[in-house]
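User: what does the whole thing look like in 3D?
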Amino acid sequence: MPLAAKVTKPVAHDPDPDLAEKGMAVTISKISKRFGSTIALDQLDLSIRENEMFALLGPNGAGKTTLIHILATLMRPDSGTAEICGIDVVRQPRRARAALGVVFQEPSLDGKLTVEENLDFHARMYRMPAPLRRERIGEMLELVELATLRRRLVRSLSPGMKRRLEIARALVHDSRVLILDEPTVGLDAQSRGRIWEYLARIRARRTVTVVVTTHYIEEVEGCDRVCVIDDGRVLALDRPDTLRSRHGRHVLRVQALDASTAAEIAALHPDAVPDGDGGLAIVGGRTILEDLLRRFGPRIDQVSLERPSLGTVFLGLTGRHLREEGAAQQGAGKR
Amino acid sequence: MIQAVEGFGYLGALHAIWLREIKRALRDRGQLVGGVSRPLLWVLILGVGLNPYFRGEIYGEARFAIPFTYLQFIFPAVIVLNIMYTAVLSAVSLIADREFGFLREVLVTPVPRSVVLLGKILGGATVAFAHGCLVLLLAQFADVPLLLSGVGEALLLMFGLAFGLTSLGIVIAHRIRSFEGFGVFSNAVILPLYFTSSSIFPLDPALTGAQMRVVYPEWLVFLVEVNPITYAVDALRGALIGFNQFDAWLGPIVILAIAAVFFLLALRDFNRS
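Assistant: Here's the predicted 3D structure for the full assembly of 608 residues, as structure tokens:
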């Protein structure tokens, strides 16, 4: 029995009186999408402010990519509307695309073209005049530190370089909203860190709204707001520190010495979920810890009490672990 | 009017898509090697080898009243073959774009899909056309005189055919989405179309229907006559060696029809996906 049933409750979104007056980069209202009997998005509402760094956090299958595809005009919603800078993505897809820069989850470069040719192709597709093309391509290559590789064939680049090139490409046409779908998946810890550095640098230089999906929790700490979604619905939406203080709970991680002990612990705490490292994660604090030690003391291999973090917020809200979280934390440790 | 102006604005994008196809083709060594070796094989080996057997009078009995050597006869067909291979197989780039995600990048730009498709087809057609022109370089070995007027007409026909067959390739690539499947299926389409296009043996226009059925089995005559490539080959023969098995106007019209029908089919598929 997952935690979700117990702890998931409608979350009041942070009421912001300025919201209506401020310019909205993305407005999503009552978007639904289903694939057969699976509901990918369920009446989802979301507003993203101009110049905001906005993170969509959710496990695989939460509906993040579906939402991104609808915003990128690659998929039509079953119902509801979505606007990019006030442009309806269903009714005026071409105008909406002109305002968007998208970095997809899967690579989308032409390996047989050079770094520069990939950018030049893109800029021509956005009808940029030649002098502006040259200027922007130079700037962007400088920004993502690929200027010296401009004549290299893309297929000879490392995955991290390719990702950087895709980010540069999504910005070449002066896009107002930059959407990145899991930009750091499949990259080593060092490259992941650099991707976030570039994003920060871009925002320091120009006005651009960044919408990023991820399931690496430690990555969203630097975002202005974080939206936790699961099963196509918004579970929580707030600043990272507010989320932590409002929804964060202590989480206890227990590793039993043998399988029978693990089974007993699981029976005692039906809410426990596997933590990905062969142990169990239980939402709860010191009392549960003391109780566990009293009952199973010598049969416990390892136990730790985690303070509220976005990771524990996520676990509490969704009853799920982000599968790659363990790996992400190892990566963070190396940095 | 406004639409026309907007359409004009996409010329740059059209050029970019076209240029990308050309660059990719030039960087693909295998494709170039195939484009050169295929006509050499057909003209130098098959053509030269079968040349002595082509004329009936060698056996004292003039069965076929065709005043050409076998080399001259198959030369225009080899042009068609080279165009066919390159054009149909160029659509593999659509499968690659889908597979490697590039298609998605193109589809999120503001460029309309029809422009994307047209650029791709024009690119593939240009490469196929160039491969057709490579065969023309062998003309003197095949004893085909290249006269200005004939070559001009032939080039037009070749480009029309390249455009139509590239569109056909796109239509196939839309239905068969794996690299392997596309290659196998395309070969299964190209070779039978080529062999039944009266490319390597003539249907003698001097023979009556009844006589022809004595020479060739009825099913073969039927296949040759329903195969649109037959008329494309015939049109090129008309332009290059002045020989037509069918009415001279029929070939160019069939080529135009191939181009129009397959482009519209490809457009319909592309807008739908």
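In plain terms: The interface with chain B takes residues 72-74, 94-95, 97-98, 100, 102, 104, 106-113, 117, 120-122, 124-127, 169 of chain A (CB under 8 Å). Confidence is low (pLDDT under 50) at residues 1-21, 323-335 of chain A.
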